Amino acid sequence: MAAAQDWLIDLFTRLRRFASNSKGNVAIITALAAVPMFYLASAGIDYGSAADRQAELNGFADAAALAAVTPTMMAQNTSFGVTAAQNTFNSQASALSNITYNSNNLTVTVSTAGSVRTVTVSYTAAYNTVFPNILGRNTIALSGSSTATGGLAPNINFYLLLDDSPSMAIAATQSGINTMVANTTNQGGCAFACHETHPSSDGLGNPGGGDNYQLARNLNVTLRMDLLSEAAQNLMTTAQSTEQSNNAAYKMGIYTFDTGFNTIQAETANLTTAENAAGTVSLLTVYSNNWLTSSNNNSDTDTNYDNAMQQINATMPNPGSGTNNSGDTPQEVVFFVTDGVEDEMVGINRQQSVINTSLCSTIKNRGIRIAVLYTEYLPLPTNSWYNTYIAPIQNNIAPTLQSCASPGLYFEVDTGGDISAALAQLFQLAVQSSYLAK
Prior knowledge:
The chain is of the alpha/beta class. It is 42% helix and 23% strand. The protein has helices at residues 2-20, 22-67, 71-74, 78-93, 132-135, 174-182, 212-218, 224-246, 271-278, 305-315, 358-364, 384-390, 394-404, 419-431; strands at 99-100, 106-113, 116-128, 139-151, 156-163, 195-196, 250-257, 261-268, 285-286, 291-293, 296-297, 331-338, 342-346, 349-353, 369-375, 410-413, 434-437. Strands 8-7-5-12-15-16 form a 6-stranded mixed sheet, sandwiched between helices. Strands 1, 2, 3, 4 and 17 form a 5-stranded antiparallel sheet that branches. It is elongated and about 95 Å long.
């Protein structure tokens, strides 16, 4: 009996020591906590992976909805769009791991209002859990949807309104400007290659007595006007390929403005004809400094915005929706390319200022869009005329032109910039028709 009592006393003593040992407590707590930590980690892995799969499926739904409203699909029966959406989603969803999905889990609905098509792609799927016994379930339900709208690629009439006034005779790059300035020291350094029929009256001092335009040509200096003409030609190529891919019909008219309003090419569906006409766009030719002709001293007021905007407005008919429905007519879009400074006579006074945006509003209020390409008016701080008349309005040029443009149809090109790329980008913005509805 005594031995048994001693054994019990020894056992209780050992247990009391173990319980009072902090290392023992940590071991017990860790052991007890390991079980819920394992459950939490397992659940986190499964729910995190399920969220990743749903994000991927949502992306597939976006792509599927957009596939149904591409220009090619918009030209087809709605059933073609449904098939395109189904194929796009199914091919991607079926390749995902740990997912239970079949084509019966996908719904594609299409509604049409006029020329606008709305496509909604909805799906259900199941994520197969890695730790089903831990979560008490074999799958986690996934679902989502995406909606895209697209307009049938509209038929559009485009009107290029191009500034060909002497200010567009500036060299296209800074190195070209420097070359012109360095070779016109007799004129105090002139960056403009003005085109004159009687330059001798100005005493320019150029070799052979030629004007600054001829000087630029002799020096192989590219002018901003050269790039504008090239950009207009390139735009016709872009328009032809876009017209074909969009199954739409485009017409082009090309006009320039200076003291007057000039028709380079009346509206035509033959874009090759328009391209050839664009190659003839050139600078306004004046008689000499301050003189438009030998009998008209107009003080170089050679940029008349008021007349240009009024004339282009009168040229364009009221726009339609651009569908092929009976009685409908094309949409109308103006491409207005300028350096943003008007120089014209208003009454008996010379006015050098930014454009009066009410002229733009008159056009936009008719439902006609205006795309504006601003070819930056280069600051000339060494020029007294610039400092007196243009420097005070320099910071207002870009904001004013942007307010003239329709929403999303404004672009700037600084000196040395790619006018062709900018004009092409504006064109694509004007014709784009599909987007995701979020």
